[in-house]
Design a protein that fits this description.
The protein is about 35% helix and about 10% strand. The protein contains 28 helices and 22 strands.
């Protein structure tokens, strides 16, 4: 909430009207003959060639899926094949002017876009540049397959490389562009500026915006294209991505050198259908998708509809829109009218479309109508065009044969290397800075008021006599987080942080207080209340080479960014064949006192998803060390913080929290209190209630509890816990998450298996009740309390003399609650 922007009631309450501009529709009507002065004949034929490559490539895939063979070569491809036959001119026109510095993102229907962008990039690279890319990619494993017995030019080799690498990826071959782990719907090749294609409809709508943010913040050349279908305009991530891309702060609040809009074009491949039906007239209300731009900003996103059946019209639009991007007036919305002859996939047989409609579009087929224009304009003869087809068919057949050859194009041998995929889930890198250069900051660290304030604090909670310092004087958990984050901002020029109320307020829980003064606007800023775009843009930013700390404030808001956290953030490292890294540290707090929608512990949800590292520090020492480790790493980390303990002081680490840099490795639980009669393993803020329980247990019942703080959920090393159980014979696992289906149960099951011979009683879970989270006044009945630990010990492990339990932990009650679903 910037104080510099005064909202004057006398102005905003005045009567007025919003006036909209006209949105151009299919304004370009030129022919090849009219455009010959702007293109060489070679360029005009190249456009045709690229369209033919896409058409034959997808015709081959369609034949394999529907007949089981191509040109007499049999192959069974059980995987998906979402085809774009009919859309070739839209793809080639989109890619024609783009360079390797321009990035495209796509959808599940992106074979054509991959090929078009790859062919376009190769045409602009020198032979040496192209050869270097091919030779260095996966140490030449891909190019070596197509290079054997080939004597043509480097550009001809590049075409083979592109077609083969894409096909091998589609067929799950280890020589594919992503080692066969992306497949048809996720294939990409970053050296040509082709970034991930997304199986989730509209999934690129916010990720591509993050890529544009990366280019803007780090002053990188080029623009970003988000290729999305017309049906994706109903998807939340697309709208949230558009909203994020159009923020006024880019042109009004960011420093002068950074002022201006994001370099992103939302390219709607409008084939007029989606899995949900016909967008125009049935499932959407926009009529013409370009209309959407009018509702976004005063520039109406420079929206227009373009005839995507004419490649020259799309090329013309991109030439004009590049000028808009270069003038820093993005974002841009292009509604590219096209049509696909196939259904959603070969299996649906276009049951929702009439034969007459498909035939009407086929009669104006973009490939053949453009070819006819070339002949009519005297650019090429029929014989020359037939030669293009013969050449392309021969290459595609050769590459098809190579890609299905098990000897030269093997699939991953999971039998011989059963852990191969598992070893690709995390990159486990350690990098000070993702980009070279000097970080942009407003003043030296030592001049920062927050840094100076922290320097006066006590870094251990107690004095030499064991008396606690006042809260104001103690170095708190939020201070540990601040020190780690601030340190990284001064080390890594690529690092940015954003979320709801991150800047002027210093974050909702004061972790970022002091960073506002230290950092320019483009490194720390407020986002819309738009969790999907917060996380989605962070993904795009990271996959392009930056490091980012997005924040969604409350764990409860995970539901608002579910696809981004569960389907996107954890998967791209492995799905890319480890081409990509994902240094994203997603901060979120576990609430207290705010009721059913703001006080839930959802650690279990993210711990369930492969590909995410998950931690939950409960002390200032651990918070700083784990945040340092997270920000030094190259993997996605979900960083939980409890609102209950932001102001807690360091009570455990001798000497207090070090002033200098240190890391705590992920996965190593920490013994916070030694004991011999029962082990209590805690997650998050429950640590302090377990300590209170241990004190009562020892004072009243003569039993000593060993308290272990998990600190991390993924990864997790069980060795220290097993050693503790060997000593105590009993264990309670506790956290603030609902007990049913929680990660607490996963820990209990594994400990029961790993330490079965040492347990004198079953592993017991003490979690929150399976209710809605009640109001603050009723929380003691919902979240684990110190007495609950004693109740569990008494009922499940060993009777405590003269003890009267407050909570019912009996077997009968456990069965009753399960039957009732509570």
């Amino acid at each position: 909430m910037p104080k510099v922007q005064f909202i004057d009631p006398s102005e905003v309450r005045k009567a007025s009207e919003i006036k909209l501009k006209n949105i151009p529709v299919n304004q370009y009507q030129k022919t090849v003959k009219e455009e010959r002065k702007n293109f060489s004949d070679e360029e005009l034929v190249r456009i045709y060639h690229d369209m033919v490559v896409i058409r034959e490539f997808e015709t081959m895939l369609n034949l394999i899926k529907t007949t089981g063979e191509y040109n007499g070569v049999a192959y069974n491809h059980p995987g998906p094949a979402h085809l774009s036959i009919g859309q070739e001119s839209a793809a080639v026109g989109m890619a024609y002017t783009l360079t390797v510095d321009d990035f495209i993102f796509g959808s599940h229907r992106s074979h054509g876009e991959i090929l078009a962008k790859g062919l376009s990039a190769m045409s602009k690279l020198s032979d040496d540049e192209l050869a270097k890319i091919m030779d260095e990619f996966f140490d030449g494993d891909v190019v070596n397959v197509v290079k054997k017995d080939f004597n043509g030019s480097v550009k001809e080799l590049g075409r083979r490389f592109l077609i083969y690498g894409t096909l091998a990826e589609i067929f799950a071959r280890e020589t594919g562009f992503n080692k066969g782990l992306g497949g048809s719907m996720h294939a990409f090749f970053t050296p040509f500026g082709v970034y991930p294609n997304n199986a989730i409809v509209g999934g690129s709508g916010d990720i591509a915006v993050g890529a544009a943010l990366f280019k803007k913040v780090n002053r990188k050349p080029g623009l970003v294209v988000a290729n999305i279908g017309d049906a994706s305009m109903a998807c939340g991530p697309v709208w949230e991505g558009i909203t994020f891309s159009a923020m006024d702060q880019f042109s009004q609040l960011w420093d002068d050198s950074m002022k201006g809009g994001l370099p992103v074009i939302f390219n709607i491949m409008n084939n007029q259908y989606g899995m949900g039906g016909q967008t125009c007239g049935e499932t959407m209300g926009f009529g013409i998708a370009a209309r959407i731009g009018a509702g976004v900003n005063p520039d109406q996103m420079h929206a227009e509809r373009v005839d995507g059946y004419n490649p020259l019209a799309v090329i013309d639009a991109y030439k004009r829109k590049r000028k808009v991007i270069e003038d820093k007036k993005g974002p841009v919305l292009l509604d590219v009218l096209t049509y696909r002859f196939s259904g959603h996939s070969p299996s649906d047989a276009s049951s929702y479309r009439s034969k007459e409609e498909v035939e009407a579009w086929q009669a104006q087929d973009c490939v053949f109508s453009y070819g006819k224009q070339l002949v009519d304009a005297g650019v090429a003869s029929e014989e020359q065009l037939n030669g293009v087809w013969d050449d392309v068919k021969a290459v595609i057949l050769d590459m098809f044969k190579l890609s299905i050859n098990d000897e030269v194009s093997p699939k991953m041998d999971i039998q011989k290397k059963p852990e191969q995929i598992g070893e690709m889930i995390f990159s486990n890198g350690s990098i000070d800075a993702m980009l070279e250069g000097k970080p942009e900051v407003n003043h030296p660290m030592e001049e920062n008021p927050r840094v100076q304030q922290i320097a006066r604090k006590e870094r251990f909670a107690f004095d030499k006599d064991g008396k606690a310092f006042s809260k104001m004087k103690q170095y708190q958990l939020r201070d540990g987080l601040f020190e780690a984050v601030a340190d990284r901002f001064y080390k890594d020029p690529s690092l940015i942080a954003y979320g709801e109320e991150n800047r002027d307020w210093g974050g909702a829980f004061a972790v970022y207080r002091g960073l506002t003064e230290a950092l320019p606007y483009h490194r720390l800023f407020n986002s819309p209340i738009s969790e999907a775009s917060i996380v989605g843009t962070a993904i795009g930013y990271a996959m392009c080479g930056g490091r980012v700390i997005p924040e969604i404030m409350y764990t409860d808001f995970l539901g608002r960014c579910g696809d981004e956290v569960f389907n996107q953030l954890p998967k791209w490292q492995a799905m890319s064949g480890n081409v990509l890294k994902m240094p994203v540290v997603l901060r979120m707090s576990v609430g207290s006192k705010y009721g059913a929608q703001h006080s839930q512990d959802w650690t279990s949800l993210v711990a369930h998803i492969p590909g995410l590292k998950v931690c939950f520090p409960a002390t200032p020492y651990d918070a700083k060390g784990l945040m340092n480790a997270a920000l030094q790493g190259t993997d996605p980390v979900i960083f939980f913080e409890s609102q209950r303990i932001y102001d807690v002081g360091e009570q455990f680490h001798e000497g207090g929290v070090p002033e200098g840099y240190y890391e705590i490795p992920f996965g190593e639980p920490d013994v916070k209190k030694e004991g011999k009669d029962v082990t209590i393993l805690t997650i998050g803020a429950t640590l302090y209630r377990a300590l209170d329980a241990a004190k009562e247990l020892e004072e009243k019942y003569g039993m000593s509890a060993e308290i272990i703080d998990a600190r991390s959920l993924v990864p997790f090393n069980y060795e220290a816990v097993i050693e503790s159980v060997k000593k105590t014979g009993r264990i309670i696992i506790s956290g603030d998450a609902n007990a049913r289906g929680s990660f607490l149960n996963d820990l209990a099951r594994n400990i029961s298996e790993l330490a079965f011979d040492y347990l004198d009683a079953p592993a017991v879970v003490v979690g929150a009740r399976n209710w809605i989270t009640p109001a603050y006044e009723l929380e003691d009945a919902f979240f684990p309390q110190p007495s609950w630990f004693l109740d569990a010990i008494h009922e499940k492990m060993v009777p405590l003399k003269d003890y009267v339990p407050g909570q019912n932990f009996t077997d009968a009650e456990q069965i009753r609650r399960s039957k009732a679903g509570v």
